Amino acid sequence: MNEFYRSFIETGKRLALEQGLVWDLVCDSGGKVVKDQRWNLTALVGMVPPPTAWLSDLGPYGKALPVLNEMRARKDLSPLPPAAMAPSWRELFQATVINELLVKKNKPKHATDNVGRFIRVLAACVGVKDPWKITGSDVQLAYNVALGIGASGKLASNFAMVIRTVIDAHHLTDQGPLARFCTPFPTEEAKAAQVRVDSLRKSENSHRSLDRMRSELQERKRSGRLPGEKAFWELVRIVFTTEPKSFSDAIRFAQIKIGIVTGFRVGENSMIPYDWERWREYVDINGRPAGDRGGISRSLMIRHFAEKREEDERAEGVVLYETAQHVPEMYRDVVLETLNGVAHLTKPLRDRLHRQTETGRLLPEFDVDDLLPATEIFTRFGGSIQFTDEPLPAELVKKYRSTYDTAVLDEMWSHQLMHRQRGAKPNENIRKTWSRYVKDGLIVPRNACGDTMSGRGMWGETFFRIGEVEDMVRQHMPTKLPDVEPFTLSDGRKFYPYELMFLMPIRALIENRNDGVLDVIRYFTNGRVDPADLQNHLGLKEDNLFTRYGETEEDMTFKIDTHMLRHLQNGELFRLGVADTIITKRFRKSVAQSYEYDHRSLAEDLEAIDIPSAAEERMGPRAQEALRLIMGDKVHGPVVDEFRRIQCELGDDAAFDYLDAEADGLHVTPYGFCLNSFTVDPCPRHIECFNGCRHLARSDVPEEQHNLERMRDRLVRVIDKIEAMPPAARNVGWQNQLKHARTRLENIEKALAARPGTKPFPDGPDLFRSIEDKAGTTIMDTARRLPRAED
């Protein structure tokens, strides 16, 4: 055991014990931790359930073992049975989770799913070998197991990330670093899986999306972070023009509308408070409405709780950081209509949840000793408003789904009561639901007088005591409990789930079964919207909004990540020329981070720069592009220097004429910008800009960095090959080849070190001829005869 590994484990153990956690967890042979020793990770970081994340499994990752055993079978090795990890691997897994939660301040789902499970994958592949003794072959085997899990390549990509950021970064192994061994086996299947991993990395991570240049001015940077055009407009069509088929879908439609117009993170969207509406009044110095003076008199803001703020981390856990976002006037009506509509839809849920919070009861409208027919409790318990075998009137169902007016639910309820009184049989689902609980002894069936019934089957005459139903749910159905646990605001006040705007029935499965109708008035299990719900219904699971509402087969295959809507609005604000400080104030605290959400094409970058009207009159479109680059300080070079000299000595008009004649095109090279005139002669360097050309100016386009790095790595291999060649095998010109390669390598290193907007080779060869040397070939022939500014 090396000192780094020992320190990592001891630190994790100390932090766990300080939080009152059991370190030496007891588990069964398969790795399942005994219930009273499981770690409640949600409580550990001070978050409020649901959902509740547990550390409860110290066995191998379930999907890894079949893939591993398939590989072993091809080598005639016996399969490995599910078994708990070795003690040293358990400690590494636990310390890694603690590090993610208490040191890095990440969320439980990230700690267990994006990091912890890959420690379990690695443990399954190495068996009893201690973590600090693993080798590159162990890592390669585990990586190829990860390649075999899932079709997207996400798991393998995350596995490599964990090796790099956990195993290697903390120096936990004796033979590290090991991330370089995350390579596919030489099989066609593994190579195909690696292609998917590479594709995924390029689409998700801007710093890896480097291998494909923006070959056209209209091509967007980091376009993989934006929703597909067809998918986005199909989503807009669905949420703005179609009728939702269920109450839950109506809430999801509203969430998506708000996500589109605000750009909120999915967690911020889900946590919008019921008391959201804030107005700000604007007056002039005399107290009169600013609108009377050409300004804006009144603006709307959305009160919400911002995520990823330093202020939301406290010693006692995560708190809600309250802030407000201005609503653009063009979206004001959409926001008001949407959120006011949701407030009306969720009123029954909010009222019930409020009473449940105040009383601590599940059915506060009854006393604990009250008896209620099994048919009526079935509606409150399962949500279905149909508790007899009499179908709901089709016209009432259609009317309800067009408005989701609770008055229509009352009509349906009265319809069912009337048919029950006329002798209609109980719905078959009542028997299926209650017979199971009665058989298991979880609840006692009673008659109308409260006496225990010995037989079963007379469900129309069966009653249950309210208190016993509530006890059964609390003891045996924790996922059915409503959300009543409060959050803590940054000022110390408590904030309860019933104060949220978006509320949803919990586990209301009836909506997806046989065209069922959920009785939101009487259903007793409600709570806040889980952010994962919206992510799932935008394409992460098979049954989603696109599959339910798409018009064509192509429409039904679309998927959108919720965070893409945030990228879309950020990029659109940049495109419209909104100042980066305003964009940052709307979404985050760092201007630099805002530019990670900038998806403008190069043409849109330039379009956002305003040029003088005189330039528009005197210059052609291509020269105007060059002027925008100069004004944005994006390029440097001889033409730029000459332009600025003429502007200073002869004035703007002469400088514009010069640029119109000389900057005959905007040259975007693989290694940066070039602003030189090639009207007559081609580039004398043949696009070897990296080899010391003084015309080269670096930009912030990430593809440049990759091209230069790739050229550097290639030259390093060439130099190594030349130097490693035995003297007897070297040809006559090997010294010139070596010198040539070293010179280019040195220049590439200089280019890589140059900041965007600067010239890597300001003193390089001057391949440009000044304006005086070119007299007679441009519109500036008379420049010498023009009076200078000082004359």
Description:
The chain is mainly alpha-helical and 791 residues long. Helix content is 46%, strand content 7%. The protein is built from 30 helices and 16 strands. Strand 10 (487-488) and strand 11 form a beta hairpin. Helix 15 (394-403) runs antiparallel to helix 16, helix 26 (621-631) packs across helix 28 (652-662) and helix 27 (638-650) runs antiparallel to helix 28 (652-662).
Q: If you average the pLDDT, what whole number results?
A: 81
Strand tally:
16
* Bulk shape: globular
Residue runs with pLDDT of under 50 for 5 or more positions: 206-219, 767-791
Terminal CA distance reads 81 Å
Q: What is the element layout, followed by pairings?
A:
Layout: H1 3-18, E1 39-40, H2 41-44, E2 54-55, H3 64-74, H4 87-103, H5 108-126, H6 136-147, H7 154-168, H8 188-204, H9 229-241, H10 247-262, H11 266-270, E3 277-281, E4 298-306, E5 313-314, E6 317-318, E7 321-326, H12 332-345, H13 347-359, E8 371-373, H14 374-382, H15 394-403, H16 406-421, H17 428-439, E9 463-465, H18 466-476, E10 487-488, E11 494-495, E12 503-505, E13 526-528, H19 531-540, H20 545-549, H21 562-575, H22 580-587, H23 591-594, H24 602-607, H25 613-618, H26 621-631, H27 638-650, H28 652-662, E14 667-669, E15 672-674, E16 696-697, H29 702-724, H30 734-753
Antiparallel strand pairs: 1-2, 3-4, 4-7, 5-6, 8-9, 10-11, 12-13, 14-15, 15-16
Helix pairs in contact: 1-4, 4-5, 5-6, 5-7, 6-7, 9-10, 10-12, 10-21, 15-16, 26-28, 27-28, 29-30
